[in-house]
Amino acid sequence: MSVVAQGTWGWVLDARPLLDQTYSRCIRWTHGHNNNSVVQCSCKSHCLQTVQSHISEKCRNVSEGILNSSKQKKRKRKHTELNQGEIEMKAFHDKVRSIIQEGTLALVASAKASGIFISTEELTQGPVTFTECGLSGLCEMSKQLPLVDSVEQDTVTQTLEGGSTLNLDLFSRVTENKSDSAVVVTLLGEEYVIPAQSAFLLSDFTRVQPLVSYGAKFDLIVIDPPWENKSVKRSRRYNALPSSQLKKFPLPLLASSNCLVVTWVTNRPSHLRFLKDNLYPYWGVKVVAEWLWVKVTTSGQFVFPLDSEHKKPYEVLVLGRFSPVSRSQSGLSELASIENYRLIVSVPSTFHSQKPQLSEVLKPYIRPNAKCLELFARNLHPGWTSWGNEVLKFQHASYFIMTPEDDDAN
């Protein structure tokens, strides 16, 4: 369970229980099936400890308790006129501000008993290193390989089994772990932890055909596009994608009738406008709600001042239904109605652009045993299919602590 509290405002999520459950028992493959061993994997605690709020000390001294960043003095602008983007951003912020302020306060208070919010003195911080594997670079190199013939359906998938991973083609075949256990395997010369009943394709736009040929129709599609912005250009953390390029993605070929489509959007108004007025209609997706992910520290404060002129402590999720005119609308009455401006409150990962897992929150809005897909993924989830040019990034063994068990795998 990742939901530790919920109410009329939304939910408070804690990633740790879900991760502990997902990787509580892993089969570690070595050089052969007879040498496999059982290990317990847990995510390194540093990954889930955003301790320090980015609120100035002066503001913190003014604050009395949680979430009082609204009392801070605003920094004087060098100019008085706002550009169109700033006008739109301010209008949106003014519309959702009270919802975020009141809702987050109520949700954090209700989650206190769970122990998710603790003082910084209770946390153990220390140096920790992780391995960068250059997956996007490997995707570029893979373009020199011949494409899989989409007609040959038997070549579109491959299964992790038997302990042998040397001959796997990760770039033009969907790789599946069909077992009920997570597995630790060597891929591309590095160890990765692959969740149970998961599937993935490591590729970019030019090699997405194997995902289409996979033949699955998904009932939930979560999208985290690499939106263009100045911060990404400066940091070069990942390759951004022009908004217009998203139209080339064949989402209608992957979505089932009434598929729930959820897209993460930055706070740049042009991105939100493009998604709602251009991209979703182009795909045949009807907007049904906008939700807000509110990011707080381990002590329950906003990670940025709520009224900051530069960065906000929240991001937007736009929910829509894939509903072409030719498709039936039957079955929607059996699902819960989706309310607008619900909040998802959580302590963000310390790694850039890693989002909270939404399976439990979205469960009432999709059919039982739904097939789920994440696009532009950077990690995997049990029971899900994932696609992206860094789809294994946060599955690398360096993000986990592995503890051997006494008994051997069967």
From TrEMBL:
Domain of life: Eukaryota
Stored SUPFAM superfamilies: S-adenosyl-L-methionine-dependent methyltransferases
A Pfam family reported for this protein in Swiss-Prot or TrEMBL: MT-A70
GO CC terms of this entry: cytosol; nucleus
UniProt GO BP: methylation
InterPro entries: DNA_methylase_N6_adenine_CS, MT-A70-like, SAM-dependent_MTases_sf
GO molecular function, one term: RNA methyltransferase activity
Similarity section: Belongs to the MT-A70-like family.
Stated name of the protein: Methyltransferase like 4
